[in-house]
Amino acid sequence: MQKGWCAMYWLKSGLLAGMLSLAFTSMAWSQSFGRPAAAEEIRLWDIDVRPDGVGLPTGSGTVARGKELFDASCFACHGLEGVGASRDRLVGGIGSLTSNNPVKTVGSYWPFATTLFDYIRRAMPYSAPGSLSNDDTYALSAYILNLNGILPADATLDKAALLKVKMPNRDGFFTDPEFAGLNWPL
Q1: Which residue from 165, 168, 170 is spatially nearest to 94, judged by alpha carbons?
Q2: 61-83: string of b/e by CB count within 10 Å (b at 16+)?
Q3: CATH code for residues 50-172
Q4: Which pTM does this prediction carry?
Q5: 78 near 124, Cβ under 8 Å?
Q6: 62 sits in which H/E element
């Protein structure tokens, strides 16, 4: 019995030592792995948009153009007029957040219209994320905001107009006291 215990001890110790040496060796090798990203490569990925509008590109789009794009590329997942299909519902739910059945949509939950633009630009359409032009992204944002009653049907959305949009739940968010002194640009 004692002999079996000793053999297991040395086996476990050997495995542990081997794993540790492999981990340290791989860390050393990783220092020479890859190459620094070129400035152009970084520029292509640096497309985030902050709530205060930093990062918004030039361009513009109309509600009408957004409807055309939505009907061609978005309704299969988000349903006719954004009411939901196989993916998230985009429209409705305003005033429902304090109910027993809150409906979180762009219009009822999201605090900033710039977040809508940023998400569409980086993640949509599902089959080809990041493939939309700036103009098409503004147009889809305008259409979704229109469906939620936030923009009129004849609206044109661009950087200046997007920054003026006040979302229905904008004041429903607050700064956590832990982060209160950070001076977020909101």
Answers
A1: 168
A2: bbbebbbebbeebbeebbbebbe
A3: 1.10.760.10
A4: 0.75
A5: no
A6: strand 60-62
